[in-house]
Structure formats: C-alpha cells, structure tokens
C-alpha cells in the first residue's frame, strides 16, 4: 500500500512538473495573430506590444463568460489610461449577430473580435474551453493563463506589477 502511494505521489510530481513547463509564464511569446474586430478593422498581437493586454476567449452561450464580463469591463476601465488593453475574442461557433448584440447591449468598452475560422483560438494553444484568458506583458510575452474566470484581485495585482515594468 505504501509503495502504491509513493508511486502515485511520484507520478503526480512528474505530471505537475510537466504542466509547469508547459504553462511556463513570462517566457512564451504571444502567438502572431490577427484579430478581426466588430467594426471590421484588424489588430495584430504585434500592435499590442508596449501594452499590458488581456486576451479573453469567450462565447455568448458560456454562462461563466457572461458572468465575468462586467468585471473584465471594470478592469479595463480601471487600467486603460495606464497602457492596459483588452481584446475579447468570440469563439468561431458563436453566431456573429449574437456577439454584436451582446457587445452593443452591454456597451463593452474594449475591443471585441470574432474568430470566424477558429485560427486565433488554434494559435493560442487550441483554446476550446471558455472562458480562457491570457495576460500578456509589454514585451508581448504570455505571463499568465486563466481557464475559467480569473481571481480578479490577483489579476489586478499582476496588472499593476506589469504596468510598473519598463
């Protein structure tokens, strides 16, 4: 019994270490992506360099996504004047009319993109679960990945730290 537990613990340590390597933070460059915004304009990840950016993958059919949007909007409003940006990327299966309606009725203050082909989600690690968000530093590196709603208190502390960096 003790050998089994020891073996299970060793496997857990190896898996945890592997996950830590896979989700390394502050080292991974954000993938080169082209976001098609609701107004028809485009933005690339290269355009976001010099800003701290939250890239949020979401869907109108995702209850957690809908529930977190007011807090994402509040976070954007709090930091936008200091070099913070948000890009909310609607998943490819989300009907564009629903996305437009959601963004307009909730008066989302940040950039909203539609990932019609799924290419953006694929580039960012084949995102399938929503919400999934990535915090990107001024150098264009992924600092943190959140699957599910982030702890906004922790997110705000991290944003503050990243905004203070040169």
UniProtKB/TrEMBL annotation:
One annotated GO molecular function: oxidoreductase activity
Alphabetical list of CDD domains matching this protein: TlpA_like_family (cd02966)
Signal peptide extent: 1-23
Keywords, ordered alphabetically: Signal
Domain Thioredoxin: 24-164
Name assigned to this protein: TlpA family protein disulfide reductase
Native species: Ramlibacter rhizophilus
